[in-house]
Design a protein that fits this description.
Layout (H helix, E strand, L loop, with lengths): L2 H42 L8 H42 L7 H16 L4 E5 L4 H11 L6 E7 L5 E5 L6 E5 H20 L10
Length: 205
């Protein structure tokens, strides 16, 4: 599986996770409202005369408070949704070295970083575990000796590479963490479209 497909799956999972959280929040909000509605109906049956107006007001207040509580449940779900999606995405990318296709993924990230950097001489900053992959990449890259070397600087990453110019003056960060960070806006937008869509709030019930 390519890194692009992994990223697309993360985006798809973000949508599914947001929908799951939304469903759970609605169920919790419905329980809050239903519990209060039953209590209000119980009190309403006890009203016999105009002297029980105080009880009637209490029922109305109880229903109002239940709707406020339901909105709070839903709002908390909204606030937690994106963080939960990001945590799942980080966990997914954190295991990328275990992917049997990780060598191909590493090669693509390195090649993409070199193209984006646009310099004749580049250095690869990699995690120590990825040094053999970097060496293999350089052998297969087909450039003149010295045009692509492994930097003495290492990077503590779950995968990927930082491509830099000589001395590390200009860099393209193509680690999985950096790519996830660049994806955050799109993930947040997808989740927000679901959780903040019109009709998504239970406050009007």
């Amino acid at each position: 599986m390519s890194v692009e497909k992994i990223e697309q799956r993360i985006l798809s999972d973000a949508k599914a996770e947001a929908e799951r959280i939304l469903k759970k929040a609605r169920e919790e909000a419905d329980l809050v409202i239903e519990k209060s509605r039953k209590e209000a109906e119980k009190r309403a049956r006890q009203i016999r005369t105009e002297e029980d107006e105080k009880t009637a007001r209490a029922c109305t207040q109880l229903l109002s408070q239940s709707r406020i509580e339901a909105r709070k449940v839903y709002r908390n779900a909204r606030e937690n949704a994106i963080n939960e999606v990001f945590a799942n995405a980080k966990a997914e990318l954190g295991k990328i070295r275990e992917n049997p296709r990780y060598p191909d993924i590493f090669f693509r990230l390195a090649a993409e970083g070199i193209r984006n950097l646009g310099q004749d001489r580049v250095e690869l900053e990699v995690h120590p575990a990825d040094r053999p992959l970097a060496e293999d990449f350089i052998r297969k890259w087909g450039k003149n000796p010295g045009e692509c070397i492994i930097s003495t600087r290492t990077v503590m990453t779950n995968g990927g590479v930082i491509v830099s110019g000589p001395g590390g003056t200009v860099k393209v960060n193509n680690t999985v963490e950096a790519r996830l960070e660049r994806m955050e806006r799109e993930i947040a937008a997808r989740v927000a479209r679901i959780l903040f869509s019109e009709g998504g709030d239970t406050g009007g019930r």
